[in-house]
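Researcher: Re-running this chain for the archive, since the previous output was lost when a drive failed. Same request as before.
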Amino acid sequence: ISLDHIVEFSDPILLTPAPNMSSLFSGFMNLRGDVLPVLSLLNFLNDGSVSKSTGKVVVIKSEDLSFGLFV
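Model: Regenerated structure tokens:
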């Protein structure tokens, strides 16, 4: 991911889960009116050492795509 596409780091504000999704998908986040899908890098790496209350969401935007990456 190019640094040009990283918009901000945000606290994980009320992630809304979606039913029947992979554990890699944390849910949706409303960030100032934009609804972003949030993927979990923690679950991808299978690392339980960081709790969801201390992690951050990296907001990534390109021309065609916007999403959050929970780290």
